[in-house]
Amino acid sequence: MKTIKLNDMTIYVAKNYDEMSQKGAEIIAELLKAKPDAALGLATGGTPVGMYKELIEMNKKGEISFKEVSSYNLDEYYPIEKTNDQSYDYFMRDNLFNHVDIDINNTHIPNGMAADCAAEGKAYDELVRATGGVDIQVLGIGGNGHIGFNEPCDVFDPITHQVTLDERTIRDNARFFNSIEEVPTQAITMGIGTIMTAKSILLLASGKGKAPIVKEMLLGKVTPQVPASILQFHKDVKIVLDEEAAAELLSEIE
């Protein structure tokens, strides 16, 4: 696996999705072995599923434990019931929580049915703040550069907040629903400021469709029009890419 240093970022280029997932899981596992009561910032979507499968296997083998772990998810659709099989609450249970020894009471996901999204965001930020910042925040990246559901906009939004989803995000997420009409048009997401309080960041990206935005995130200017570009200012970022996602970046720096 190729390793590249770029400012304060360490970039790992894996051969394929499976190797990317394995490397991501190894980074999480290393933290859990050193700090069993770690606070994990978790993400949903297709990209981290393989990593979660690897972590489940490590847990089953007794290599790592989640007994003392607390978790804080990036976002949730709004409005959506926890029981909806497209909610991120359901996703986390189905893809990780139900298969490891985590205390479900120590898992936190924004309330997709909150009566007051502003109050929910404030309370969620206080939860994250109480950890002193999560130990590692897992991120994917949208084709438009979003992290969490922080869409391209004019300013970096610092706090957990309600957001209207970009048309591209809705199209990209339609693959998880029966039709595009079923995709929620709003969400509650950690703000950029909340994400940046994490002690370390782990961003995963795979597939040739992500290659242009990966290059722009890492080599372009820092701008809220590419929300992920803010990671250039974080002091501890690990990025795990497969060869397809890394292709345009590598063509620029090698």
Q: Give the CA-based shape.
A: globular
Largest sheet, if any?
Answer: 8 strands, mixed
Please, what is the oligomeric state? single chain
Helix content: 25-40%
Strand content: 15-25%
User: What's the total number of strands?
Assistant: 11
Element order: H for helix, E for strand: EEHEHEEHEHEEHEHEHEH
Query: Low-confidence segments, ≥5 residues, pLDDT <50?
Result: none
Amino- and carboxy-terminal Cα gap: 16 Å
The tally of helices reads 8
Radius of gyration: 17 Å
- Major β-sheet strand ordering: 1-2-11-10-7-3-4-6
Average pLDDT for all residues: 97
Describe the protein.
The strands form 2 sheets. Strands 1-2-11-10-7-3-4-6 form an 8-stranded mixed beta sheet. The protein has a 3-stranded antiparallel beta sheet with strand order 5-9-8. It is of the alpha/beta class and 254 residues long. It is globular. The longest helix has 18 residues. The chain contains 8 helices and 11 strands. The mean pLDDT is 97. The two termini are 16 Å apart.
Can I get a quick summary?
By secondary structure, the chain is an alpha/beta fold. The protein is built from eight helices and eleven strands.
Features:
19% strand; 254 residues; alpha/beta
Write the topology of this structure.
Elements: E1 2-6, E2 9-14, H1 17-34, E3 39-42, H2 49-60, E4 70-73, E5 75-78, H3 88-95, E6 107-108, H4 117-130, E7 136-139, E8 161-164, H5 167-173, E9 186-189, H6 192-196, E10 201-205, H7 211-219, E11 237-242, H8 243-253
Parallel strand pairs: 2-11, 3-4, 3-7, 4-6, 7-10, 10-11
Antiparallel strand pairs: 1-2, 5-9, 8-9
Helix pairs in contact: 1-2, 7-8
